[in-house]
Structure formats: structure tokens, C-alpha cells
Amino acid sequence: MTRSQSVRPFYRPMRPRSRDEPNRGATPLELFFDLCFVVAVSQAAGNLHHDVTAGHLGHALTRYLMVFFAIWWSWVNFTWFASAYDTDDDVYRITTLVQIAGALIIAAGVPRAFTGGDFSIITYGYVVMRLAAVVHWSRAAAGDPAHRRAARRYAIGVTVVQLGWLLRLALPEGWGTAAFLVLVLADLLVPAVAERPGMTPWHPGHITERYGLFTLIVLGDVVLNTSVAIQTGVDAGERQLWSLAAAATVIVFALWWLYFDRPIEAPDRLPYSLIWGYGHYLVFAAVAAVGAGLAVSVDHDRHLAHISGSTAGYAVAIPVAVFLLTVWVLHVRRQQHGAVVVAFPLVALLTLLTPLGPAPVYVVALLLAALVALTVLLRRRDVLPTAATAGDGPG
What we know:
The chain is mostly helical. It folds into two domains: 25-194, no CATH class; 204-384, no CATH class. It is built from 13 helices and no strands. The chain is globular. It starts with a helix and ends in a 5-residue tail after the last helix. It holds the Pfam family LtrA. Keywords: Membrane, Transmembrane, Transmembrane helix.
């Protein structure tokens, strides 16, 4: 490699990456992007925890889903763009760092959105991120003639929707939620419309790795928040929380196992890629909410929560059930067969019933452990005959 090839340029034309590029993995910039985003995820989950503990259930759910959309959608758009057009020149890095700054602004605005319904800071951060994305797409339109129409549609669509988000701040208070839903729909339609002239060259294997890595990061935030909540109780002399810590650990381990049980099938066609990519909103939001729910259970056991035991149980059971059903739709139902396909929705249903009885968190942990055990047994049943057949050849 010559010196000119090894030195990163300030600017290079934004050519498309190959969809068949071998050994395509996440870059340090993408990992840094994820790490900064988890700050916003942690803020959203932490505020959900405090609102549920205080008994503000409807308010907590609405605010959480709205805030998480801003976080998730900004992450999704960068991830798919980077998969297709990461040039790693200085201009690309600087533009991406501007997007990261927008993510930090979003994180700073989360408490105000929860406490007073003030989404202005989150909106400003979101617009910063999305307008930086317009710079990316404008570069792609200039550097990739084959996908120029799609890149221009992205740039124009994102710009128009951002104007809508800014105008929403000037609407009367009663119109805020309706306008939010309209703008969410508009944002979601941009990729569906833009990709119609021809799909941009995102890398299927790279995309599945990126989604898996972000799932890991959100799971890590669950571990951190739950550990801190339990540590606070134990430091106060409440030793009974050790058993709750064990149940929480089983739940987190099971969620990881069930998501990564088998190799994830990469999306390779537009309709399925949209369903797969959009469906992960529920995966990420549910995992982060599990962490909030476990922290609520700790508060309830410490008699600090203003809610009933069943409500504290639902704070864990509902996101776990949403996670199971979403993973079932996106992964299990498409790739597996037999008892495990039935087991996922069945365990989700049983999970929703656990708050009606005693010790719901412990029962949820047992149900998830049983589901993991079933997946392991069925996978071994599928693998062993294949291995035996492979060994039947001539010696």
C-alpha cells in the first residue's frame, strides 16, 4: 500500500459500497455513534422508570414511545446510509460527528419531554441529525449516478419533513400529538418512496451486524440500570434484593440468547427490509423498557413505588412480551419450524398473565429460561441427524 492510499483524504467522491463486499464489519465511527446514542436510550429508560414508579402510567408510556422514536429513527437512517456509502473521508467523519452532537442534544432534552411535555430540545437535536443526513445524501446524489434519483428523494424528503417538525413546535398544545403521528408517518414513508427507483447498495450482512450490536448496547444499558438500582437497595441494607437480582440476570441473559439464538437472516428485498428494519423499533424499545421495568420492581420491593405489585409486574411483563412477539415475527417465524414457532407467542401470552399472580418477575425469569432450554433442545435435535448423516460416507 502506498502512502497516498494509506492517508485518509479530506474529501473523496461518495461512491457506493458493494453489496457483496467480503468481511464488511462495523467501523470505529459506527461503534462510537452507537455508544453516544446509548446515552439517549438510557435517559429515555430512566425517565420511564421514574414516571412508572410515580404512578404516571399513561403519561410514561406515551412520552417514552415518542422520545424513543426520535432516538431510534435517527440511528436507523445513519446505519443504513453508512452501510451503502461510508467513504471514511474527513468530510464524512465531520458530518457524522454533527449527527452525534444531535444525538446528545436529544438526550439532553429527554427529561423536559417527560416532565413537561416540552419536545423543543429533542426536536432541535433531531433536526440537527437529520439535516446532517441531508448533507450525506446530497453527496451520494453527486457521487453515485446509478442511485441519484433515490438519493435526491431522500435529501428532499428528509428536508421537507424536518420543516414539518420545526413547524410543529408552533402549533397549539392540543395539536401536538396528532401532528407528531402525521410527521412520524411522513418520516417512515421517505425510505419507502426513495428506494422505489432502485435500492441503495446497503450491505445485508453489515446491516444485521449493526442491528445486533445496537441490541447488545441496549442490553448493556439494562444491565447497568438494573445493577445500580439493586446496588442502591443492598447498600441500604435490603438483602432480599439478591434474589431479585438473580431473576433479573436470568431475564437479561435470556433476551440475549433468544435474539442471537441462530444466525440472523439478512434482509435483501425492499418490502422485507422495511418490515425488518422498522420492526426493530419494538425490539430496541422493549429491551430498554425491560431495564426500566426491573428498576421499578426494585423500587416496589423497597416500598418506594406508588403502584401496586401487579402494575410493577406489568412494567416487566409487557416489554418482555413485546420483545418475544417481535423477535418471533422478524426471526423465528421465518427461519424456524415446529414447536419453537408456537412456543414464542405462547410464552409471550403466559408472560402477560404473570402479574396476576405472586412474584411476577421470578415467573417471567422461569418462563424465559424454559423457552431458552426449548430452543437449545430443538436445535440439537435438528443438528444431530445432520451430523450423523454427514458421517455416514465411505471411510
